[in-house]
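Hi C.,

You asked whether I'd gotten around to modeling the 111-residue construct. I have! Everything is below, sequence then structure, no commentary in between.
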Amino acid sequence: MDSVPSRSVPVVTRTLILINVVVFFFELALPQETLEQVFYLFGIVPARFAHPNWAARVGFPVNDYWPLLTHQFLHGGWLHIIGNMWTLWIFGDNVEDRMECAALKHVQTKA
């Protein structure tokens, strides 16, 4: 468990955990073939970026950079999501506190 208490309610951390869990249950509801397509479309396929001509030939959208964001919400199984969400739960509130503090300092220096 986390030994450093949070100074505020970790809204962003909780929201990210909720989104990840909802997407994972959506993945579980998909047939295997459709799930594979989702992983190819929204996951990181290195050849898609390293060999754009090949990617276009096999049907990947050209110049589509959304997977750089969407891959973060895809999980390959129960251990994967449990491990990731547990780590996010432990460290996310502390990171959120630090980032909030940094953001407030940035706003204060601009005012």
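If it helps when you're writing up: The chain has one domain: 11-110.

Thanks,
B.
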